[in-house]
Please model this.
Amino acid sequence: MSEVKRPQRTCIGCRQVADQSSLLRWVLTRDDDGQSAVPDPFRRMSGRGAWMHPRPECAAEIIRKRAFSRAFRAPVRVPAEEEISAAIDAFTTRDRGDSTVQPESGSEI
Model:
C-alpha cells in the first residue's frame, strides 16, 4: 500500500526539512513601526509563511542569521527572544487534536 505524503517545509533556522504539522508558522504583518514577524500557530493568517522547529536552538539560529528578513524577502523587525520562546511554548502546549488547525492552501491534495 502506498505511503501517505504529508506537506513538507524547511525550517529557516536549521534548514532541515520536516512535516509541516511539526513546524511553527510565522507570517509578516505591517504596523506603524514597519514590518514584523508574528507567530501563526493555527495557520489562519494570509500571506507568505516562514517555518521553524519549535526548539530554542532553531530560534537562536534564526536571530543570528537574520533568517526572517531572508525568508520574507524584506526588512523585518525581528521578534525578541522572549516573544519567540512564548510562541514556541504556546505551540508545543496546544492541544494536538485541535481540529481548528487548517491546512495551508494548496496542501489539501
Residues 81-93 form the longest helix (13 residues). The CA atoms of residues 12 and 52 lie 6 Å apart.
